[in-house]
């Protein structure tokens, strides 16, 4: 028995008292085991490890964060995104439509305002002749945008993709969007030799980290497994690859079209976008536009007031302007505006209604 122990002290109290002055002391709960011998063992470590950065919710809610950046507001946010579709479903056409709109600063899909900037399109499946034909169809008489940069058969991208993208972002800081067409062309050679989920997750997470570091959205195109097209509760379950490819994605898009049909659907979901299903339509020149929206959801009255005000003003408004107009405290209004993510979009100039979303009021 320990001489320091009294009837009123527990083994834990004795140990804490005896080693209180020891630096980096970790106490293990003491007790009796086998013939009254203590099983608690005091331990010392040269270094104690803890979490590097801890933030309280109260601190988070008063932190002023920069507005989320978009390539296409409501559809492609800053971060890593995935666009999946079956063979000849139109995913490359959709990506090219969006790329030209951003490169020219025009409406994407006929409705969504974009901010003009450089677009890097890795057309790794299609050659110059095919891309020229498609651009001719989409541009018509318009001036071809210098801001759309095309890359074709690039060697060793399965090992050098991140390095080359990082160099591109340094050389062209005005880049607004990167399209990678197709995953099979940049898939690391080691994928499939070990834990496929972890390998594909590491690949996707690398794109996610790079995207946030450069503040440039990156969208990866990939096929869907046609054998799983039917009877799926989750429309993204059949995207080629494991769920590791989708796990880090801020947005997941899946396009579905029957061959020779002018209409298609686009499912959108993910951490950085509001879940939605859009009806799209193409013309003979493959200009893709948004045709329909999903049923209107119900919002709380205080959120409906914000939407009604933004619709009435018809311009971008700062959170302070909205708060003053509705006689609400500033921090409360900022929280409400965040909850309207998807219906309300923002940038450094303020908040406005998302022209892509069918708002509830």
Report on this structure:
The protein is α/β, with parallel strands linked by helices. It folds into three domains: 11-44, no CATH class; 70-292, P-loop containing nucleotide triphosphate hydrolases (Rossmann fold, 3-Layer(aba) Sandwich); 297-353, Arc Repressor Mutant, subunit A (Orthogonal Bundle). It has helices at residues 11-18, 57-60, 91-104, 128-139, 157-171, 183-186, 196-214, 301-313, 319-326, 330-339, and strands at residues 25-26, 32-33, 37-38, 43-44, 70-72, 76-77, 80-85, 118-123, 148-151, 175-181, 218-223, 251-256, 263-269, 276-282, 288-292, 344-347, 350-353. A nine-stranded mixed β-sheet has the order 9-8-10-11-7-12-13-14-15. A hairpin with a 6-residue loop joins strand 12 and strand 13. Helix 3 (91-104) packs across helix 4 and helix 9 (319-326) packs across helix 10. The chain is globular and about 90 Å long. The N and C termini lie far apart (76 Å). Residues 23-38 have low confidence and may be disordered.
Features:
361 residues, Rossmann fold, Arc Repressor Mutant, subunit A, nine-stranded mixed beta sheet, two-stranded antiparallel ribbon, 10 helices, globular
Question: Helices, strands, pairings?
Answer:
Blueprint: H1 11-18, E1 25-26, E2 32-33, E3 37-38, E4 43-44, H2 57-60, E5 70-72, E6 76-77, E7 80-85, H3 91-104, E8 118-123, H4 128-139, E9 148-151, H5 157-171, E10 175-181, H6 183-186, H7 196-214, E11 218-223, E12 251-256, E13 263-269, E14 276-282, E15 288-292, H8 301-313, H9 319-326, H10 330-339, E16 344-347, E17 350-353
């Amino acid at each position: 028995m320990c001489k320091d122990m009294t009837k009123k002290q527990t083994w834990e109290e004795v140990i804490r008292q005896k080693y209180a002055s020891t630096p980096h002391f970790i106490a293990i709960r003491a007790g009796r085991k086998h013939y009254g011998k203590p099983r608690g063992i005091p331990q010392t470590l040269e270094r104690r490890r803890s979490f590097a950065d801890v933030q309280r919710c109260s601190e988070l809610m008063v932190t002023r964060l920069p507005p989320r950046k978009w390539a296409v507001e409501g559809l492609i946010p800053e971060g890593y995104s995935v666009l999946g579709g079956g063979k000849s479903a139109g995913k490359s056409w959709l990506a090219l439509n969006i790329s030209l709109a951003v490169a020219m600063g025009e409406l994407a899909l006929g409705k969504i305002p974009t901010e003009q900037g450089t677009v890097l399109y890795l057309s790794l499946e299609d050659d110059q002749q095919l891309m020229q034909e498609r651009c001719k169809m989409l541009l018509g008489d318009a001036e071809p945008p210098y801001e759309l940069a095309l890359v074709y058969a690039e060697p060793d991208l399965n090992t050098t993709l991140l390095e080359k993208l990082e160099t591109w972002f340094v050389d062209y800081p005005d880049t607004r969007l990167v399209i990678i067409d197709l995953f099979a062309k940049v898939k690391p050679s080691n994928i499939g030799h070990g834990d496929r989920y972890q390998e594909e997750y590491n690949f996707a997470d690398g794109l996610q980290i790079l995207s946030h570091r450069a503040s440039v959205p990156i969208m990866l195109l990939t096929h869907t497994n046609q054998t799983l097209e039917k009877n799926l509760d989750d429309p993204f379950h059949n995207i080629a690859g494991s769920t590791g490819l989708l796990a880090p994605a801020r947005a997941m898009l899946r396009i579905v079209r029957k061959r020779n049909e002018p209409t298609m659907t686009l499912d959108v979901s993910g951490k950085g976008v509001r879940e939605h299903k859009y009806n799209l339509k193409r013309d003979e020149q493959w200009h893709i536009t948004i045709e329909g929206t999903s049923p209107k959801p119900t919002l709380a009255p205080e959120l409906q007031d914000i939407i009604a005000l933004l619709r009435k003003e018809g311009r971008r408004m700062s959170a302070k302007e909205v708060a003053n107009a509705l006689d609400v405290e500033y921090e409360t209004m900022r929280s409400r505006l965040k909850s309207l993510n998807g219906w309300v979009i923002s940038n450094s100039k303020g908040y406005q209604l998302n022209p892509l979303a069918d708002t509830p009021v």
